[in-house]
Here is the input.
Amino acid sequence: MAENPLEVIVDTQLPVHEVSEATYRSVLADCAAVMASSGLPHAFMGGLASSIYGRVRRTHDLDLFVRPDDAERALEVVSAAGYETEKSNPDWIYKATKKGLLVDVIYMGSDGAVFDAEMEEHVRVVEYEGVRLPIVSPEDLLTLKLAAFREDTARQWYDCLALIENVELDWDYLVRRAARRPYRVLSLLVYAAGEGLPVSWECG
Here is the structure.
């Protein structure tokens, strides 16, 4: 089977290391302010979004989703704010770091998903640790995580189950967003139903 360049683990030459909770919160607040000031459409996703939606777990980076056409500009914006940056993989991801914390600037999901107008329309703005954050909708987070699910990232599967358990989902929207990997989403929903989690089979 041919290797999907969007599913390859991307190493970085940037200076990253384990950071304290205080440093994590500080860089998160800074990154949120920098991106808000930029005016670029964006949202946070990844482990941070999973924690906000109810599955609290340790995450070692920030995942920022931007439009493909805005990726270069987003990297310039954070660079101007004191982040070290690199163009890690031109297929889908750039990286930045500040105070040792890695920030992934992602502009294409593993299934080819992009931060389009519909995704932007469904972004939720929440307050987390005193910081206002735009995060991808739970439906988009679920489909993005399932697309990225691999043998070595079992946490993605459990993050998705937690979304079904803890969040009231827009099932019609989820079905639309699942079109790229419908069988992955279907398998998750069948498993979730078997575990007694609330799953709707009646979508418009």
Observations:
- The longest helix spans residues 21-38.
- Helices lie at 21-38, 46-52, 71-80, 117-121, 138-148, 155-166, 171-177, 182-194.
